[in-house]
């Protein structure tokens, strides 16, 4: 199978490598010529066999809108666009309607795995028609982790469902990171009792009910910088957490833990807290998100 991939940043470039490693031919386009396979988006479209599949992996919002607009004028009826970025699910409705007017199909794919996806595979949550899912299943199988398909891939529903599931996934992620971070701050505060904070978290990695990949990443971060002296406790939020809380409000679903984690990130922008240093370190570990270095 041969697909196009638009956006070769931290995740996109790794996705291209994993796809090619697993037998999917990829023509990639990026505005950075150093990583792009072609000089222009039109060249990418020309390089693909019909019916074409183009996976878009660029920042949500205006940049994704611009790429979809460009593809609308370049693709043909029967072609397929997959948005694998972190777009809001309501954007999917708009993009699908826009492309359908030209006979172009559309799917949304929530993608989790961060900078570790090349090695470990990506968790995939997909929205779209069953026919299109079956058409590009070789792509999904190449990207997902090894093991049973249902443990790393789900066809959630129609267009918008994939990004909705990813939105909730990220809301949960916010809350989990906040819980680990607050535990870190309490342990670190009581050094008169706790003599090995890093070792405590490390010992939780097997057998305990709080073990997880996020815990492993927190241990990695602590081993590299036990006091987080090189990280400022400033944590950005990328949108999905806010959207999750908005959906909770709109549907009268109580989300106190996720909501609190969002507000804690706002607090991080006002003062340098040890807990927020831990959250910043975790985001850097799993997603390669930038941290603010201490001046």
From TrEMBL:
SUPFAM superfamilies: 6-phosphogluconate dehydrogenase C-terminal domain-like, NAD(P)-binding Rossmann-fold domains. Pfam families: 6PGD, NAD_binding_2. Keywords: Gluconate utilization, Oxidoreductase. Residues 162-290 form the 6-phosphogluconate dehydrogenase C-terminal domain. SMART domains: 6PGD. The keyword Oxidoreductase applies. It comes from the Bacteria. Belongs to the 6-phosphogluconate dehydrogenase family. PANTHER family: 6-PHOSPHOGLUCONATE DEHYDROGENASE. This is Decarboxylating 6-phosphogluconate dehydrogenase. It comes from Gryllotalpicola kribbensis. The gene is gnd.
């Amino acid at each position: 199978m041969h697909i196009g991939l638009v956006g070769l940043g931290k995740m996109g470039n790794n996705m291209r490598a994993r796809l090619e490693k697993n037998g999917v031919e990829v023509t990639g386009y990026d505005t950075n010529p150093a990583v792009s396979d072609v000089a222009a988006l039109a060249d990418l479209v020309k390089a693909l066999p019909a019916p074409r599949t183009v996976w878009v992996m660029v920042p949500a919002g205006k940049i994704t809108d611009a790429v979809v607009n460009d593809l609308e004028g370049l693709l043909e009826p029967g072609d397929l666009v997959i948005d694998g970025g972190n777009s809001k699910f309501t954007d999917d409705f708009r993009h699908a309607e826009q492309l359908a007017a030209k006979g172009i199909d559309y799917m949304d794919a929530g993608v989790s795995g961060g900078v570790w996806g090349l090695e470990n595979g990506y968790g995939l949550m997909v929205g779209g028609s069953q026919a299109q899912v079956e058409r590009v299943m070789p792509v999904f199988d190449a990207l997902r982790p090894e093991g049973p398909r249902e443990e790393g891939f789900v066809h959630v529903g129609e267009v918008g469902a994939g990004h909705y599931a990813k939105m909730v996934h990220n809301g949960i992620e916010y809350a989990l990171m906040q819980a680990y971070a607050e535990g870190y701050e309490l342990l670190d505060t009581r050094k008169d009792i706790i003599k090995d904070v890093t070792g405590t978290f490390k010992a939780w990695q097997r057998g305990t009910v709080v073990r997880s990949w996020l815990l492993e990443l927190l241990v990695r971060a602590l081993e590299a910088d036990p006091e987080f002296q090189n990280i400022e406790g400033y944590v950005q939020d990328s949108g999905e957490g806010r959207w999750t809380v908005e959906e909770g409000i709109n549907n009268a679903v109580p989300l106190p833990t996720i909501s609190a984690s969002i507000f804690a990130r706002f607090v991080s922008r006002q003062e340098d807290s040890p807990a927020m240093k831990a959250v910043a370190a975790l985001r850097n570990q799993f997603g390669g998100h930038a941290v603010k270095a201490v001046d």
